Fold this protein.
Amino acid sequence: MSGGGPEAAVGGEVPVAGGNKKKDSLGTAGSPAHLIIKDLGEIHSRLLDHRPVIQGETRYFVKEFEEKRGLREMRVLENLKNMIHETNEHTLPKCRETMQDNLNQVLQRLQAATDSVCRLQQREQERKKIYNDHLIASENQHIIQWEDFMKEQHNKQAEVDEEHRKAVERLKEQYAEMKKDLGKFSTF
C-alpha cells in the first residue's frame, strides 16, 4: 500500500541485495514491459494509494473549518462588541437616568411616608399623654371623693352612735320610770 515494495519500483528497477546499485532487469526504458510496469504503478497508486488525495482533502477541510470558525468567531466578537457599545452608549445612560428619576420619586415618597409616620406617632403620643393625664386626674378625683366619702361615713357613724346612745339613755330612763311606776302599783 505504501508503494515501497518491488512491484512499485519506478522504471522496473529492483534493488539488488547487498549493494546500492540498481539493475534494469526488464530492459530499456522504452520497452513495452517497462511501459506496462509504469502504467501498473500509476494505476496502483491511483486505486490503492489514497494518501495524497486524503491529505489534500484533509488540508482543504481544515482550512475551510478554520476559516469558517474564524469568521464565526469574528462575527460573534463583532456582535459582542456592538452589544457592549450599544449597552454603554444607550442602555446604561437610559437606565441611569430612569433610575435617578425613579429614585428621586421614591425618596420623595419615602420622605412623605416618614413625615406621615412621625406625625401619626406624635399624635398618638399626645393622645396617650392626654389620656394618661386624664386618667391620673380621674384617679386623684376618685381618691379625694373616696376620702370625703370615708370622712362623711365616719361623721354619720358618729351621729348614728350618738343617736343610739341617746336612744338607749331615753329607753333606760323610760324603763326606769316604768319600773318606778310599776313599783308604785305593786304595793297595792
Notes: Residues 51-186 form the longest helix (136 residues). Confidence is low (pLDDT under 50) at residues 1-24.
